[in-house]
Amino acid sequence: MLSTGALRAHLLAAGLAGPVATPRETSLRSYRLFAARDPRVTLGIEPLWRWGEAELLRLMAERCGVSGDPAYRSGPDVIDPERTLGALAAFAERLGEAAGRRAPVLFGTGHPHRLIGFYAALADALSAAGCLVLTPAQGRCVDITTRFGVRTYLVDYVRGVALVREADLSAAGRETGAHTHSPLPVRAVLEGAAEGGWPLPELVVGDHGWVCGAGQLGIEAIGLADTDDPALFVGEAEGQVSVVVPLDDAVRSDYYRPLTRYVLNRACLSR
To answer: Residue 17 in contact with residue 86, Cβ under 8 Å?
Structure first.
C-alpha cells in the first residue's frame, strides 16, 4: 500500500502539488471571470452567494493553498499537498460509501487525454464491487460554444468514462476525446438516462462541467480541480459539490497512477 508520505513526495515530484504549471496569471483571470459570472468558468454552477475576486482568492487560498496575497500577480501558482491528501481521503471515503450501497455511478471527464486512466480504474473497481457504472446517451449530439464558435460534439464512453469527441471523428470507443469545461454533456447524459429508462446516478465522479453540472442539479458529485477552476471549490463551499481534490489536472497521465492506488486502497476497493 502506498503510504501517505510516499504519495506526498510523489505529488511534489510530479508537479501535482507544490508549485504547479498553472500560471498565477491564469488563475487570477479565472477568478475575475467567475466574479463576472462568465459561463466559461462557472461551469454550470449558479452561485448562491456573491463571489468577488477578493472572496474567490481567499477561498482558493483556503481550499488549495494558493497565495492569498493579492499583490502576487505572476509566476507559478501553488497547491498545498496536505490539502490534496486530505481531499483524496474524503474522495476515497465517498467512493467506498457508494460501493457499499452498490450505487449507480457516472464518470465523466473534460480532460480525457490526461485523466481517462485515473477515472477508468475507479470505474472498474466500482463495477467489480457491484455498482452499475452508467453509460447512457452514447452518440447523443451536444452543441457547445467554443472560442471557434458553436461546435457539435458526440457523447462517448471509454472504459466506462463519459467524454465528448468532435462529431466528424470516427474513432468512437478508441481514441480519447475533446477537452471541455461545459456542463452541457452531463445534462445531455442525465436527460438520456431518464429517457432511456436508466437509473439516475447517485454519485458523479469527474471534473469541470461534469461535476459542477451534476452538483447544480442536486446529484452528489466529487472531482478534481486545478487552481484555475474556482467553480468546483465554490460549489463545495456552497454545498452543491461534495468533495474537490486540488491538484494539477494536466500533467502526464501516468503521474496519476499512484493516486489511483492510494484512493482504491483507502476506499477498500483494491483487488
So the answer is: no
